[in-house]
Amino acid sequence: MSKFSEVLTPDNAVLAMIDHQTGLLVSCADEHPLVVKNNIQGLCNMAKTLGLPSVVTASLADGPNGPIMPEITKILGDKVINREGEINAWHSSEFKSAIEATGRKKIIMAGIVTDVCLMFPALSAVEEGYDVYAVIDASATWNKTVQQASIHRLTQAGVKVTTWASVLAEIMSDWRSDKGMELGQVLADHTTSYNYVMNSYFARS
Length: 205
Known about the structure:
9 helices; Rossmann fold; globular; alpha/beta
């Protein structure tokens, strides 16, 4: 089966959250910071609901980049791989080993900033045979021009550029699945429009 048609499942994917650090987030302007934060929380809560393995990493956490957003560690736990200096997280043996240890070849990946922290490890992982889903709306960068340039380069390399809600729907697959309603609630909690859908449903129940 082509990797372009094989879908995400709770058993074949790992979540990688790369450099979502407070010092980097404040400089991002391609989307409102509150929207980005909400999308990041939605993605993390999806992974927690499904019990997906997750790998969180930071670059120079004691320096200007700052620590990982507390919203992420609150959901996924306090384990963070603090890289010694590698800009490309894939060049960190600890990060790469953590991904390999899951035995999963599909990586749901998000990072700040998009054109460096997300793009470089995504390209490296694809080169080594991984199927990478770059969650563009749970990532952020300096402006829309940089975001668009990053999307072009990612897609040219075979990375699947996607959104967190699309990932959730793909991995849920069926509302009748064991986690269907829980995932629906995650979607409602982090998207205004679907919150109204769920409210309407429960009002009729």
